[in-house]
Design brief:
Strand content: 25-35%
Oligomer: single chain
Number of strands: 20
Radius of gyration: 23 Å
Number of helices: 13
Length: 465
């Protein structure tokens, strides 16, 4: 893990720039504090299932808890999702405020939550040793990793342990995995393999995160672990099962991504050729990328180029007729967001649709009435969240690098910038992605000089040394 340490950084300017909401409205907080489980009478008691959670360190808004078991012919995934729809009254102040916010926006010095913390980190969170209302998915998977049957129901669940990703990875490395997760490595590997069969595209680019470091902040680049991938596959499988239910019932909210344009695939092939990467005939982009060493500069360049294949993600609501293009090409099939309702608005509505389908009841009117505008709500909030995240990293990078203007660094060239004599480079230590003047060759290692680090403009720029 590499890190870049900064002193005082004021993220309030980013809150102001993007007009992020401040204090949660009092009436909405009051509703959250007074919330009761509106579906309590019809819940299954599933507190005998030993659920666990896997989240980043310090997380309190725990949407998901899981239990993986082996069966005679494969696996069973029990996946509990916080039942937010049962504690947010339609048409109230809390409902209106969540519609305005769209999703939780995370900044290094605190989040701008979708729900009041009294709910998202309290009464609705799947915290350990507490009984909580949940939407409980039960998914049976065959020995090849294919989901063969699934359902969802309202239940009461109880988590017995909260883990971090690092803790679970260490337990896997030590061959001492918690019983509730013992089959996860085998199921996770199978699901990764099935994703490649579907043509899914996984981009493993450098991930930057600003985290607290004493009185200051640091930018970290932490490698993605196997447990990250396996846990993500459980969520993706659930979302694919949800989408299948919606398409069969002809009502739902899908997360979509069109197939990549042929010109973009051709461009990626040319990049592979220029970088000296062999692309065997009949191999899809996702399968090729999965074979590359993520530590190599040529791989980083290919992954950066491949981002063009994943443009155009959207949300689609439908009722009565399925969309012409229901698929998410990055996942390799239809997919719906249903596993993060404490942090993302659309999941509350999509989960309610699935619960209605599974119980053979009509989708509530509060869901169908909201469906036409939910895609716009999510597009807007996605855009803001992505811009805020990038702005926080840029501000921290430019602040900490300001005293180092004129120094030289090792870098990997990710991509040339179209129509400009510049390129995007990844400085490996400290972990910074920024522009570099000149025309260095993609996929090569170069030595670069820091020319600009302007915290006011949040810009960092290099030139060939």
């Amino acid at each position: 893990m590499r890190r870049l340490v900064a002193g005082a950084v004021n993220f309030d300017r980013i809150r102001a720039e993007f007009d992020l909401p401040g204090v949660y409205p009092a009436q909405a907080v009051a509703e959250a504090v007074a919330a009761v489980d509106s579906a309590a009478a019809g819940r299954r008691d599933a507190t005998d299932l030993a659920f666990v959670t896997i989240d980043p360190p310090g997380s309190m808004d725990l949407d998901q808890a899981l239990l993986v078991t082996r069966t005679s012919d494969g696996f069973r995934l029990h996946y509990a999702i916080a039942d937010v729809a049962a504690v947010v009254a339609p048409g109230g102040a809390l409902d209106a405020e969540t519609r305005r916010r769209g999703q939780t926006v995370y900044l290094p010095d605190g989040s701008v939550p979708l729900h009041p913390l009294e709910l998202s980190e309290g009464s609705a969170s799947l915290l350990p040793d507490t009984t909580r209302p949940a939407a409980l998915w039960t998914i049976d998977v065959d020995s090849d990793g294919n989901a063969v049957s699934w359902t969802v129901e309202r239940a009461l669940v109880r988590s017995v342990r909260r883990f971090t990703y690092a803790e679970v990875q260490q337990s896997v490395d030590d061959a001492a995995v918690h019983p509730s997760l013992e089959p996860l490595p085998d199921l996770g590997r199978l699901r990764v393999a099935r994703a490649l069969d579907r043509g899914a595209i996984e981009l493993k680019l450098p991930e930057q995160e600003v985290v607290a470091d004493g009185d200051g902040w640091r930018v970290e680049q932490a490698p993605r672990t196997d447990v990250d991938d396996w846990n993500a596959e459980m969520s993706l499988m659930t979302g694919m099962c949800a989408a299948a239910m919606m398409i069969d019932a002809r009502v739902g909210l899908l997360r979509t991504l069109p197939p990549p344009a042929e010109r973009d695939v051709d461009s990626l092939r040319r990049a592979a050729n220029a970088l000296g990467i062999d692309w065997p005939a009949g191999t899809g982009p996702g399968a090729l990328l999965a074979t590359l060493d993520p530590a190599e500069p040529a791989t980083l360049a290919m992954m950066t180029e491949a981002t063009r294949l994943l443009r155009g993600a959207d949300y689609v609501a439908f009722d009565g007729q399925t969309p012409e293009q229901p698929n998410h090409s990055g996942i390799g099939g239809p997919y719906a967001h249903v596993t993060a309702p404490l942090r993302r608005l659309v999941d509350r509505f999509a989960t309610e649709i699935c619960l209605s389908i599974a119980s053979d009841t009509a989708v509530p009117t509060w869901v169908t009435d909201a469906m036409p505008t939910l895609p716009d709500d999510m597009r807007r909030s996605d855009s803001v969240a992505n811009k805020v995240d990038r702005a926080c990293v840029d501000l921290t990078e430019s602040t900490v690098l300001a005293p180092r203007v004129g120094e030289t660094f090792d870098a990997a060239v990710l991509r040339g910038k179209e129509g400009k004599k510049s390129a995007q480079v990844f400085v490996t230590d400290p972990p910074v992605v920024a522009d570099c003047s000149g025309e260095p060759a993609e996929g090569t290692r170069v030595r670069v000089r820091l020319d600009t680090a302007d915290a006011g403009a949040r810009t960092v720029r290099f030139s060939p040394a």
